[in-house]
Amino acid sequence: MSSSESGMLVPQSVRLQDDLRSAKEELTQTISQIKKLQERKRELDGRISNIKCELDMLSKGGSASAQYEVDTFPWSDEMMSKLRSVFKIEDFRSYQKAAVNATMNNLDCLLIMPTGGGKSLCFQLPAILSKGITLVVSPLISLMEDQLQSMKELGIHTALFNSNTSREETKFIFDSMINPSATLKLLYVTPEKLAKSKRLMSQLEKAYRANRFARLVIDEVHCCSQWGHDFRPDYKFLGIMKTQYPKTPIIGLTATATPNVIIDVQKILNIEGSLVFKDTFFRPNLKYEVLDCGEASKIEDIANLINTRFPKQSGIIYCLTIKDCEEVSEKLRTFKIRAARYHAQLEPEKRTEIQKKWYNNEVQVIVATVAFGMGINKLDVRYVIHHSMSKSVENYYQETGRAGRDGNPAHCILFFKFGDSFRASSLMFTEKNGVVNVYNMLKYSLDRSNCRKGLLAQHFGDAWELSGCGEMCDNCDMKSSGSNQYQEINAGPLLDDIDSILDHASHLEERMTALKLMDAWLGKGNKKLRVETVATPKFNRQTCETIVALLLIDGFLKEEFHFTPYSTISYIVAGAKVVLRSNGKISQDIQYQIPLSIVNPSKAKTSKKPTTSSSSVKEKDTNSKHSSSSSPKKSTPRVHKESVSSGSGRGKSSSSKSSDHRKGDDLKRKEREKSVTKDGDDEDPVSKKSKFSFKKKTSMNDSNFEDGVDCVQVIGKRFVIAQDFID
Ligand SMILES: Nc1ncnc2c1ncn2[C@@H]1O[C@H](COP(=O)(O)OP(=O)(O)OP(=O)(O)O)[C@@H](O)[C@H]1O
Questions:
Q1: Using CA positions, which residue lies closest to atom 7 of ligand 1?
Q2: How far is the CA of 550 from the centre of ligand 1 (A)?
Q3: Torsion angle of alpha carbons 118, 120, 123, 127, nearest 10°?
Q4: ipTM value greater than 0.95
Q5: What is the pLDDT of residues 555-597, one digit of tens each?
Q6: Atom 3 in ligand 1: which residue has the minimum CA distance?
Q7: Which of 44, 120, 130 lies closest to 89 in space, CA to CA?
């Protein structure tokens, strides 16, 4: 029986009230834990389904290509002769012949080839070899117009059907679709037009009955899937085509599709089990680099980079928002660079004019949002620079793929700053998979040890040589020069500190932006947000920011997004894995490898890599052919390791807590292989490896988070930017 301080018996009702309160508290905690565990379950379910997709594709894809590489089909001779006489192409590139043969054999197939790989030939050649009409569904009118022009030059009769098509032209097209002696071979249409035009669908039915609907081509086929990065609702309509025209073969083309996107596309198009021809994503002439930068000198760094490494050479700079785009192009002009901006808010005529000037080299650099993209076929683009990271790895791959289409060396350079990740996630969180996509991109950007081409290959489920790309990315460059020294940091105890700060804030009913969190952790900013028992970490701000970013990616922390009337704000909260940790379900140790150049710049061995500071971007002449020819000999990487048991200065329970729940290395590794999601959606991470290392940025005093959060808040005041970004 309880008693009060005065020794009097506590009435039963008071005791029951106490019990009730305590039970309610426990219930609230339990509900919160269940919520987090459910979230984790969704993450794991997603990951499992993704792995199953990959396994499924591996088992199906294998032998398909070899079977269709042969020259014994009835059309083989004519195919080779038309390839040479009409297209003036001597021989096929890999997978082209197999894809042409498969579609000529009336089989449904998906062709995944890198940008500039030659996908168009795989339906244009069959179109002239087949009787009847090939319908090409393509997402952009400008892209269709380009193809129309090039088909005209090759003497292939092609038409485009859209809202501008005149009555006479429409009549001609519809007649040609059913007339056995018509010469029209290719008909281009947008998915929107196809979905809307009952007349076209009805005419297709007539053509089908007359055995004249030869083939359905779906360009940028990844747009069918909501898992993809460019989902277009009207692509879903294409699902009925197989039901309506079962004997007409479908060929879908894309440069970017992860295994689960491919499986999803097959389901949507009702062509499950179709052949999948998947070429390597490797573009040997592209060199990938990531440069850390501070906001202050970013544009100046880009200008210096262009003026020193790429004087007078043609390039593209991608920006996250229209405002960035305007600002960058304007500033570049002050550095005497002929730059022009390109975004969705410009009038179509203006956009065409800028594009033309760029094609003619009157404009050297196009500074663009994602609005500048599909169908860009300028061969001599020597560099694609990203002013901010892309919203997904798929976007990044597509955007960088516009470089070096002539096969000569070209550079893909990403200027990275953590704050950009928060800008991107705040813009993307309303999209399905939006935050996962941003984190995959963040992961790619942060990775300073694995081959970048390997990371891309892994993302797209492509086979990859573990030995790396041979100095065609900065990470392989670093390895070969022996300068990838790193320090191993156990972020487990640091996470305990961060968790305490977040807990404290939640008791105060304060939401923590990344900036507030960093400040409270580093003993700065609002005093009431600091936690007495949390000592200032021993690391500099950049190291701490890096650790927070890694904890976000690994699911120990999570972003939550809130709308205000003017902005969308990202707040940091504990992630699902924090509950698993405190229940001893996963190891308390979280090991990260962070380069000495960040953790301890004075100890870091100098890399041959350039940094972004204005003075140091003047680097080797890259006009030369592949850098491998001029690069120094490979040496065994000399890795300097320093182990740090805890970055926290306080004696808090961290180490004892760790040992209580310590699990095997295996479990730890497995846990780190899982990606973080916005609302439990699954996605396979860019890299399944958990070791990260990072290189020095321009200024140690820069606060990346500060910039990022500010931008997030400002962005909301300019809704048009979010619109453009999505556009
Ligand atoms: N077998 C070949 N040999 C030589 N050149 C080829 C071959 N196949 C295609 N090409 C050329 O390669 C260039 C790129 O082809 P295409 O535009 O079809 O690429 P793509 O895969 O559609 O690229 P994107 O995804 O960027 O649209 C074109 O100039 C085309 O003529």
A1: 118
A2: 39
A3: -120
A4: yes
A5: 899 999 988 777 788 899 998 777 777 766 666 788 888 877 6
A6: 89
A7: 120
